[in-house]
């Protein structure tokens, strides 16, 4: 029986019943849940580092075994031959972001991919030099865009434009983003925004932003660190030029896991300038060691090096889970689970004043951010002592992400009662 928001009640019994009725609840058993004093923790940090699928270890062990048994021959003779290994992830990853197979590749890490993409898509020329980014973007993104501007001999302060919420507001309004794009017009070279804001949890209207960006002649890319494996994405249909994301957050590939990269089909066969390496060269001719580069006619042309197989292995383990559970089923549960968290917080605190994440379901993913009135960092410490793992961001934000693969309604129920205690003890 499907669970709906009408079923919400502030009782442990109801939470447990919703878990019983949840068709995805069984996936929780496929993950290792860390413990605190012998009990599973309430883990709400899947937006920062996803938990370990139980299938990750055997998947990595297979590669250790193949290495032991075959040495260098493992490139061709391993159970999953290493020369092709990244291809085994493509279809599942493409489904996660709504791309075609020729548009999606797993390689490098997020910030590296962001730079590689900007080499191709940020081509300042004449009046068209500006990069539009959201204010307070994740620091790595800020450093990346500013350093790209300087790389082209430009003054980053003059070139990088930041979107800011209206005075007294925490969130960006879509209309304001679109107006800004229009104002920048033919000065705008690139829009590069975090599709889901890491701090507020706001999910932006990527389709509308892409359309407007293209209407003024700009390129449009997204950092989907908080989007991939979390919210519905249709990068191909939206016409997004490029996107990059990491896989260790919602995609559960493990610390420092290999990242993803999307380049729209419209660009993969063109002759965009790009930094090149041997793994982007024609697969048939790679081992002929010829001096001139012949690009693979897909996003794989942006690959530089032969990839880290152990990292691909743990990501493959995780992507198999996403493929079986299904992104749309996960999103259905996620909307309900996050709404239940919001419902419980409103019930416990008497209002949603604490919550800075949008109230509209289509404007958020699996995260609520709370502005803690007093002693934010101490609240986090107290939560931890009671077996709750969340995180804290300066100056006073606690972020909690109920992820649909391994969090339960009971987790949410218990979390909110502990949060209430901790906030009240410090106020
Ligand atoms: C997590 C995150 C990153 C991390 O970058 P790495 O290159 O993987 O270290 C970058 N940008 C955003 C928006 C993030 O949330």
From TrEMBL:
Q: In which pathway does it act?
A: Amino-acid degradation; L-kynurenine degradation; L-alanine and anthranilate from L-kynurenine: step 1/1; Cofactor biosynthesis; NAD(+) biosynthesis; quinolinate from L-kynurenine: step 2/3
- Give one GO term, molecular function aspect: pyridoxal phosphate binding
Q: Which Pfam families match?
A: KYNU_C
Instruction: Determine if Hydrolase is one of this entry's keywords.
Output: yes
Q: Which InterPro entries match?
A: Kynureninase, PyrdxlP-dep_Trfase, PyrdxlP-dep_Trfase_major, PyrdxlP-dep_Trfase_small
Carrying N6-(pyridoxal phosphate)lysine, the residues are: 249
Identify the domain of life. Bacteria
Annotated binding of pyridoxal 5'-phosphate, by residue:
110-111, 138-141, 223, 226, 248, 278, 306
| Gene Ontology process terms (BP) | anthranilate metabolic process; L-kynurenine catabolic process; L-tryptophan catabolic process to kynurenine; NAD+ biosynthetic process; quinolinate biosynthetic process
Q: Does the keyword Secreted apply?
A: no
Cofactor(s) recorded for this entry are:
pyridoxal 5'-phosphate
What keywords tag this UniProt record? Hydrolase, Pyridine nucleotide biosynthesis, Pyridoxal phosphate
EC number(s)?
Answer: 3.7.1.3
| Entry GO terms, CC | cytoplasm
The catalysed reaction is: L-kynurenine + H2O = anthranilate + L-alanine + H(+); 3-hydroxy-L-kynurenine + H2O = 3-hydroxyanthranilate + L-alanine + H(+)
Q: How does it assemble?
A: Homodimer.
To which protein family does this belong?
A: Belongs to the kynureninase family.
Q: Which PANTHER family match?
A: KYNURENINASE
> Know the name of this protein?
Kynureninase
Give the originating organism.
Pseudobacteriovorax antillogorgiicola
């Amino acid at each position: 029986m499907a669970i709906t928001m009408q079923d919400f009640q502030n009782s442990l019994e109801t939470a447990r019943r919703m878990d019983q009725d949840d068709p995805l609840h069984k996936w929780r058993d496929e993950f290792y849940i860390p413990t605190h004093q012998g009990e599973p923790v309430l883990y709400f940090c899947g937006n920062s580092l996803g938990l370990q699928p139980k299938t990750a270890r055997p998947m990595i062990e297979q590669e250790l075994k193949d290495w032991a048994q075959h040495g260098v021959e493992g490139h061709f003779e391993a159970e999953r031959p290493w020369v092709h290994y990244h291809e085994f992830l493509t279809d599942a990853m493409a489904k996660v972001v709504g791309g075609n197979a020729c548009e999606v590749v797993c390689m490098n890490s997020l910030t590296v991919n962001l730079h590689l993409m900007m080499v191709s898509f940020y081509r300042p020329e004449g009046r068209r030099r500006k990069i539009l980014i959201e204010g307070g973007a994740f620091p790595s993104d800020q450093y990346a865009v500013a350093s790209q501007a300087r790389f082209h001999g430009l003054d980053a302060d003059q070139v990088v434009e930041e979107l800011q919420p209206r005075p007294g507001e925490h969130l960006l309004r879509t209309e304001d983003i679109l107006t800004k794009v229009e104002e920048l017009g033919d000065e705008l070279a690139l829009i590069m925004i975090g599709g889901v804001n890491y701090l507020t949890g706001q999910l932006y209207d990527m389709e509308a932003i892409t359309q407007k960006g293209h209407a003024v002649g700009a390129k449009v890319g997204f950092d989907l660190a908080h989007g991939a494996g979390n919210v519905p994405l249709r990068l191909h249909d939206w016409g997004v030029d490029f996107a990059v994301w990491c896989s260790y957050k919602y995609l559960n590939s493990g610390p420092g896991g290999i990242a993803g990269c999307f380049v729209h089909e419209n660009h993969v066969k063109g002759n965009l300038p790009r930094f090149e390496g041997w793994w982007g060269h024609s697969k048939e001719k790679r081992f002929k060691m010829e001096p001139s580069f012949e690009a693979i006619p897909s996003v794989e042309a942006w690959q530089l090096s032969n990839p880290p197989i152990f990292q691909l292995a743990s990501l493959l383990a995780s992507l198999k889970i996403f493929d079986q559970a299904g992104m749309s089923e996960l999103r259905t549960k996620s909307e309900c689970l996050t709404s239940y968290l919001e419902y419980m917080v409103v019930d416990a605190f008497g209002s949603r004043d604490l919550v800075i994440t949008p109230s509209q379901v289509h404007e958020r993913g699996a995260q609520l951010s709370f502005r803690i009135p007093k002693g934010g960092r101490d609240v986090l410490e107290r939560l931890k002592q009671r077996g709750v793992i969340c995180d804290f961001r300066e100056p006073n934000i606690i972020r909690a992400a109920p992820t649909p693969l391994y969090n339960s309604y009971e987790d949410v129920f218990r979390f909110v009662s502990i949060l209430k205690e901790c906030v009240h003890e410090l106020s």
